[in-house]
Design a protein that fits this description.
With 127 residues, this protein is mainly α. The protein has one domain. The chain has four helices and no strands. Helix 2 packs antiparallel against helix 3. The longest helix is centred in the last third of the chain and has 35 residues. The protein is elongated. The two termini are 20 Å apart.
Length: 127
């Protein structure tokens, strides 16, 4: 299984887990939260390796965004987790705003990974 496919599958699992732990759904299930947080540190590494520059695959903005986008999403998640849960320096409104941006950026990263994966596949087929 290629690293690009692994990245895509992990991102879809992450979206599902993140949605499940949203307030009002399954927010109180620790296994979902811990799995979401664990995958958050694995996905950037896998994406970084999957979308590294390769011969025959032209560099693109989507490829760079797919490579570094998970780090941005992880950073936003860490701001929420550390700022609200541990330091108690974020008001609830800021927490919810950053969470919303975290979710939107996460969805955008999935889209950019799909675009970059398609470009890489087309480049492989053309070669």
């Amino acid at each position: 299984m290629s690293l690009i496919l692994v990245t895509r599958l992990l991102l879809y699992a992450q979206i599902i887990l993140g949605t499940l732990q949203s307030p009002g759904l399954m927010n109180g299930v620790p296994a979902i939260l811990h799995t979401h947080r664990s995958l958050a540190f694995v996905i950037p590494v896998v994406a970084f390796l999957a979308f590294r520059p390769k011969p025959g695959v032209p560099a693109s903005v989507a490829g760079l965004a797919a490579r570094y986008g998970p780090v941005v999403t992880l950073g936003l998640g860490l701001v929420n987790w550390i700022g609200f849960k541990f330091l108690a320096v974020m008001p609830v409104e800021a927490y919810l705003a950053v969470m919303g941006v975290h979710m939107l950026v996460g969805i955008a990263v999935v889209a950019l990974v799909e675009v970059a994966a398609g470009k890489a596949r087309r480049a492989q087929l053309a070669a």
